[in-house]
Write a structure and sequence with these properties.
Helix content is about 30%, strand content about 25%. By secondary structure, the protein is of the alpha+beta class. The chain has one domain: Creatinase/methionine aminopeptidase superfamily (Creatine Amidinohydrolase). Strands 1, 2, 4 and 5 form a 4-stranded antiparallel sheet that branches. Strands 3-12-11 form a 3-stranded antiparallel sheet, with no helix packed on it. Strands 6-10-13 form a 3-stranded antiparallel sheet, with helices on one face. Strand 4 and strand 5 form a beta hairpin. Helix 1 packs across helix 3 and helix 4 packs antiparallel against helix 5. The radius of gyration is 18 Å and the shape is globular. The two termini are about 35 Å apart.
């Protein structure tokens, strides 16, 4: 089966990346009350989630992250009529981020094949009609080792417990404190150099959403805000080192594994709507 998938991947990627059409940005905003804007955010979020679902069968031993980038790029542009937001963003060279094993975030796709047991976070951001949808999840090339599976499970739990706290009146620091406590309970560390962020008709904006902090501090969450929560949890120490000629790639300083999950959220009158929720996720 794996050989069949690898042959399918070769066929899908043989012609490289299609051209990205020109587009016109909207005025930057990360809070919305108009239903047209909210529907625009819902559409962008759904498309971003759909890319992750589409990529799932292609994450197998032997695939390269460059091939995954080509498949995602062409799907976003051709099938979704959308724009891959990372491409050329402050010089980022690809359409998705692929962070393998000890890479925390902003991994740049390359021609190195994934090995059996590798983990890769794939981070997708699409722009549809000027609205941004941003999400990521962990994938495994084959069966993960138990310690890796546990790290990923706890990281996803950190995301979910924070999402369940989101509602008007909650403070951003409450989210970070809860994430940090859960990670530390399981003897993991929380990356502090990177955080969640406001998004909407801009890729990154206010509020900043650290994944550590003190309860009762930080920005008060208000209805209509749209932002991401995206905890990066390390198996070892929290310190980061940067790699690559442009310094984009963030890795664990001690070389141990890292995991991340991310969703885009809309704050409602009495809670939260997950704009990038995937079909397999049970958030009841």
């Amino acid at each position: 089966m794996s050989n069949e998938i690898l042959n399918q991947i070769k066929e899908l990627t043989k012609n490289g990346r299609v051209d990205v059409p020109n587009w016109t940005p909207k005025t930057a905003a990360t809070r919305f009350t108009d239903i047209a804007d909210i529907e625009g955010m819902r559409t962008a979020g759904r498309l971003a989630a759909d890319v992750l679902d589409m990529l799932l069968p292609f994450v197998v031993p032997g695939v390269t992250t460059d091939q995954l980038d080509i498949i995602a790029h062409n799907h976003i542009v051709t099938e979704q009529g959308a724009i891959p937001a990372p491409l050329d963003y402050h010089g980022f060279p690809n359409s998705i981020c692929t962070s393998v094993n000890d890479v925390i975030c902003h991994g740049i796709p390359n021609t190195k094949a994934l090995k059996k047991g590798d983990a890769v976070n794939i981070d997708i951001t699409v722009i549809k009609d000027g609205y941004y949808g941003d999400t990521s999840r962990m994938f495994f090339a084959g069966e993960p080792a138990p310690h890796l599976a546990r790290l990923c499970k706890v990281t996803q739990e950190c995301l979910y417990l924070a999402i369940k706290m989101v509602k008007p009146g909650t403070r951003i620091g409450d989210l970070g404190a809860a994430i940090e406590a859960h990670a530390h309970k399981h003897h993991f560390s929380v990356v502090e150099e990177y955080c969640g962020h406001g998004l909407g008709t801009t890729f990154h904006g206010e509020p900043q959403v650290p994944h550590y902090g003190t309860s009762g501090t930080g920005t008060v969450i208000e209805e209509g805000m749209t932002f991401t929560i995206e905890p990066m949890i390390n198996a070892g120490k929290k310190q980061v080192k940067h790699a690559g000629k442009d310094g984009w790639i963030a890795k664990t300083k001690d070389g141990r594994l890292s995991a991340q999950y991310e969703h885009s959220l809309l704050v409602t009158a009495d809670g939260v709507e997950i704009l990038t929720l995937r079909a397999e996720e049970d958030f009841s």
